[in-house]
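To whoever is covering the structure queue this week,

Two jobs came back overnight. Logging them here so there's a record in the thread.

Job A:
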Amino acid sequence: MVLLPGGGCVGLDLWPILDGVAQFATAVTYDRGGTGWSDRDVHLPRTLADATDELLELLRVADIAGPYIFVGHSLGAFYARHLAARRPETVAGLVLLEPAHEDLRAYMPKELTDSWDAFDPGAVSLEAPPQQVLDFYRGLFEQEMTAWPAEIREPLIANHVHPRWLQIGIREAANLPALNDEMRAAGPAPADIPTVVLTAMDVDPFKRAVSMGVSDELLQAEIDGKTRLYDDLAATFTHGENRRIEGVGHATLPMRRPDVVVQAVRDLLQP
């Protein structure tokens, strides 16, 4: 199993999943070039092809034989789906956690997409974020990672609230429209790839923090829209399923419910 973290995240953000799957299967994760603890000489943002070619080469060099179950969260699911479309022989199955999707906007109310369009990531300066903002985000991460081993938790949190990692997170996702086009151009993945989609059915504190001014009704409409999208995505696979996970949001699904991800991997490994 290969874990692919979301944008602004690193491999160790998925540590509970990695630890759980490692009890019964080979499990690996990594930081994409230019992110986390990987080589920072990589220019961001990147194409899907660049990132997935890099991943397959790393797996080859590490002598980890495929095909693989790719577990992708958010932006990481784009890379998993791109591999399934472009290199299906490398893919034994997909577990897609709150996956980024090229058709997401079509499932959303116009009021919500208008608010997204009003946001200009280029206008965001993270050179010196206010200390109260950093302290707030530190508290969110500490709450979610409180039971994690200190040697993993402490450097993760320290880096997540460092301006360098915050800037990297914004740069990595800065070409999202181009990634949408690249995913469409890749075409659909083969329908016979076993696939489980996991949909978070709640709004977590991370989502609340970036949704100030957005009504509860609109946030619920976003959940309803993505659920329909993920149902449709799962239906493109012969053995596809969208599992609704209550009590978690987009960011906290892999941290609070690693058990449902581990179970999805276990299910795909069963003959």
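Job B:
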Amino acid sequence: MSDTPRGVEHTDSIDSHDSTPKQPEKTKSRRPPNGLAVVLHHWRHLRPYWWPSSLRQLTGTFLRLCSMPVSYFSSSSDPPDSQKVREIKLNYTDCIAKAPEFTTFENMPGSAVESAFKNANSSVRAQWAKKTNTNVTLHNGRQITGNQCVLQFTIPEDMSAPILFYYQLTNFYQNHRRYAESCDLQQLKGDARSYGDITGSKCTPLYGTKANDTSKPYYPCGLIANSMFNDSFSSPVWQNPPNDGKARTYNMTNKGIAWDSDKDLYGKTKYKASDIVPPPNWAKAYPDGYTDDSMNQPPDLKQWEAFQVWMRTAGLPTFSKLAMRNDKDKLVSGIYQITIDDHFPTTEYKGTKSVLLTTRTVMGGRNNFLGIAYIAVGGVCILLGAIFTATHLIRPRKLGDHTYLSWNNAPAGKPSGPSTAMASGRESRPGDS
């Protein structure tokens, strides 16, 4: 029973005294508020799906795009970039054995002379002579009696700078594992490593010796340093310049021949001269060992770039290493002569040694292999791409086809079906068959 009489209503309720207008009730919606896409990064975008067919085609296209331009610049320019290099190579291995005594010159064998110039018909004449039992100067300034090979050759056309002078060895395996590791990096850096530190290191077996009943380490130790190439070369001398006809030297330097990164691997040694001995094959330069005399002091490996070049081992048995260079002056056509102090033996291991005078291009030296290799790789990619595309169009394979799973192709005699651990990813439970 209500306390309020019928027909009587209270008009002075709380709502009647509320000055705030009544707001319409909002309806709930699952639609995200404006701007949420920006907050959640739900922008329109493209997300490619890498199916095997598209991935094969994309990979083949990428390899073709990489290979063909390089092959074009290497071998297909007019003339090919590699063919723009001018060079002459002279093999002087048998000079001391076969060349006549200086000043009589004799033509070098045709197999010992190789050249590449713009005019293929350019005649390159090369002759040699030898000087036996003559005074030669070693890298440390010591004078000894030795042999020299004198090469005289023609340059049929001007060679633009930079002019690079290399020596080339064949059948010399610097890439042998034991040889390539045979050095002590800390010693080369300048640390005074003791005989005990060097013993048993990678320098073995050339780690040191006994001198005056005292064990001393070799400096530098190891097979690489001991077998350093020690032939030395004079700068080319122009024999027939115009006008006065006096011979002129085309000056070349042995500075700037090593990589800057290699120079950081070497430092001036902290050894005392009395604490170390030179490697066995350095006996000509240091017959009395290391002393405090200026001529017999241990070499400064930080400044000796020829040593740094030799210590960077080659990956193939035939290699060239930079000996001298001239980055400014062109080598004009004419007759030139170089004198070689012949020390390094190559006949013992059936190798050869040559000098190489060459220019270069943006693609490097004269090497047709690079262009041919890239053309071959590009051609193989085109062929394989065509085969894969044809296979996909003629007999497309359904993606995710379970018939190709290994357990659905079990050999006869073996039950088909996946092993529990491999297929289901769970352990077997009671009741599993």
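Note for Job B: The first strand starts at residue 87 and ends at 91.

Please reply-all if you pick these up so we don't duplicate work.
Q.
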